[in-house]
Amino acid sequence: DYYDVSQEVLAVYLQQVPDSTIALNLKACNHFRLYNGKAAEAELKSLMDSASTSFEFAKELIKHNLVVFRGGEGSLQVLPPLVDVIPEARLNLVIYYLRQDDVQEAYNLIKDLEPATPQRDHLKIAQQFFQLVGGSASECDTIPGRQCMASCFFLLRQFDDVLIYLNSVKSYFYNDDTFNFNYAQAKAATGNTSEAEEVFLLIQSEKIKNDFVYLSWLARCYIMNKKPRLAWELYLKMETSGESFSLLQLIANDCYKMGQFYYSAKAFDVLERLDPNPEYWEGKRGACVGIFQMIVAGREPKDTLREVMHLLRSTGNPQVEYIIRIIKKWAKENRVPV
């Protein structure tokens, strides 16, 4: 971070070697850090003038740095051919994609890289910086200061404290989708799924509404609020993917915990078709028996029995026929057509 000191040392060196490509480039980079992109670009001019036709690396270095100095302008034209030539080109292209909100392309570029610093360390540093700003005398009573403290506690997963700070500023952010997204998550995390559902449904941004975090939290709220059909409809609207599989797991398990066995059975049935894991059969078996018990107790429509039997028969497990015999016997005794 000692760019001014670096400049002083470079000045001495450039007096001896005025056409040094490395030194001139470093001088331009220092200007970028100390001043701005235009100042850095002006320093690169002498390097462009001195780079020989045989010194191809200098040309590539100049092209790369000009993109950086110009705030990413020309990234797609210049950086892709350089990702395996200049190490920083890959990272700067990642930054460009992130600024364009193209997370998938950014991820594709770095998915095979091993991080030098673990994510947990980054989160810890972020939490400390949020706390530093939010707890400062100049910011503690400002809206940004309280948002910082909310972010600090969000990263610490102390959601009761998150709500203290978000509640203090929510009147300023009624129609702010990002605020409502965070507010709803905090509400849901503290068990207030009824209010969380209401806030989630205020969000208008299609980007957020297609985010798996949004979908999974909203599905969980629907289930906890005894609206499992709406959670199931969220799954039906998704394309088949790893995320839709994860949502199925959430629906299957959360509905089971809440005694919403019909939609639990449907979710476990799809999971079993996609992955013949014995645990999915066990989940479906338990959910189907749960539905049957609710029908016997008069808490579920009797015509649901037909679908229960259909779900059971989709599994080639020897236990199926035993369960179906018991269901048929009860249905016959109670004159329920199956």
TrEMBL record:
GO terms under biological process: intraciliary anterograde transport; intraciliary transport involved in cilium assembly
Keyword Ribonucleoprotein: no
Repeat among keywords: yes
A GO cellular-component term linked to this record: intraciliary transport particle B
Molecular function per GO: intraciliary transport particle B binding
Organism: Micrurus spixii (Amazon coral snake)
Main location: other
Name under which the protein is recorded: Intraflagellar transport protein 56
Superkingdom of the source species: Eukaryota
Coiled coil: none
